[in-house]
Amino acid sequence: MTRVAVCAPATPILPQHAVAITALAAEIAPEVELVIHDQCFASEGHFAGPDTMRLSALLECANDPSFDAVWFARGGYGSNRIAAAAIEGMDDVARQKTFLGYSDCGYLLAAMYKSGIGRPTHGPMVADVGRKDGDAAARRALRWLSDGCTGLEPSLGETPAVAFNLMTLSAILGTELMPDLSGHVVMIEEIAEHLYAVDRLMFHVTSNLSKCGLAGLRLGRVTNVPNNDRPFGSQPEDIVRFWCERHAIDYLGEAEIGHFAGNHIVPFGVAPPLARA
Amino acid sequence: MTRVAVCAPATPILPQHAVAITALAAEIAPEVELVIHDQCFASEGHFAGPDTMRLSALLECANDPSFDAVWFARGGYGSNRIAAAAIEGMDDVARQKTFLGYSDCGYLLAAMYKSGIGRPTHGPMVADVGRKDGDAAARRALRWLSDGCTGLEPSLGETPAVAFNLMTLSAILGTELMPDLSGHVVMIEEIAEHLYAVDRLMFHVTSNLSKCGLAGLRLGRVTNVPNNDRPFGSQPEDIVRFWCERHAIDYLGEAEIGHFAGNHIVPFGVAPPLARA
């Protein structure tokens, strides 16, 4: 039995998300026991409860030795507000634990990776079960929580890797949450940003990462791009190639991550050989 | 006679903007001669012509000794793509010149300020003449281009100051365009961003600027905030106070800058005493 605690460091899920993910787990990963913290349904303005409530729920889940993993319920925005305090409050129990999530929860993954806490891992979240085309992603996460070796992003190898939402990575740069990414493959994905905003983010991110000595950069899916008043004039992969070339970062091709059914698992650092086999 | 060259480092203006601003100049600042570069009307995808065209138009205006000032036509997005090359191409003539603009043109103002080129100045642009409530802003810019001493942001004093669009400042951080802002008052403004995005930008900007030893931060207008799926839960000034306090930056109050009629002039650095009198 793998016991997985679910909490919401950013925005809340609905009770039907909890019902659906629990049913799905019973069906395809019966050896995974999901324990969904009540805080997941709290609401205060934009967030799943005030900062103090989200922080204490996260620390309860992280520091409880009866849980093997912490699964973030949903992104949306807000985990940056509690990330530094979360690191400070995590104990030796948390250091042995897997943490799974993506999108806005990238702030937490970054900060944990920087501090060597647990096994921060990019992958689908509980709320994906409620998204169009999200069911396959949620299934992939549950299987991985169960066996720890399926559903890995196909390009993963012996080079350490991380994966981030592009906007989230941009906001991490220069802050106390930013890990050392030298020698890493950095995978990025984006959702619901205009292409000019993707261009601006790539300017900012490649300018900053050019100093890090990356192994290279991969592009996941850029989804739900809003229409602009006029076409931007180039596509996401062209934008990424342009800025990688400008700032001397190797562009390595596509990655199977993003806000879509094919969102795969990226353990931060080097995935265990068994998992990559 | 003050000769002012107008070019568009980001997005284009329409011929009617040129007609309107020329008529307004003839009416209220007849000693200002506006010379509007054809590049202002060029269009390629999102931009006012390709990078090479926008760069060469900017350098023509900046390096021509017959012009006293360069006025940016419009923001929108794109001046970051040519800012570093523009600095490299600017000669001694450009170093004596005034450059006026804001919003996306903040990339150029930042880079020039960092390099000690000319007198970079935050203020209304040509395209403001076409905006609702923009006429008063355009008039203020024309009067300032004429006399060099009216329309200054009211809080300016002997402490050096800069003014930026918040998103633009966020994207400048950690790049080669970023000036040293130690001892400065930093004024920020924003348009058309969700409040959660303003919160995220303030997290990023105050995290980074907390290392700079600022004199403090002032908040201009946050306009055209899109509706979110739910209320964010706090207002722009609360957000700014929160992040300033979190990162030990003095919040000094409001500033009369932004995408609105009351957008005032902020010469980067210390404004001349005469102008502040």
UniProtKB/TrEMBL annotation, chains A, B:
InterPro entries linked to this entry: Carboxypeptidase_A_C_sf, Class_I_gatase-like, LdcA_N, Peptidase_S66_N, Peptidase_S66C, S66_fam
Gene Ontology molecular function: carboxypeptidase activity; serine-type peptidase activity
Similarity comment: family membership: Belongs to the peptidase S66 family.
EC number(s) on file: 3.4.16.-
Keywords of this entry: Carboxypeptidase, Hydrolase, Protease, Serine protease
Domain LD-carboxypeptidase N-terminal residue range list: 4-117
Enzyme class: hydrolase
Record-given protein name: Putative murein peptide carboxypeptidase
GO biological process, one term: proteolysis
Ranges of residues in domain LD-carboxypeptidase C-terminal: 165-270
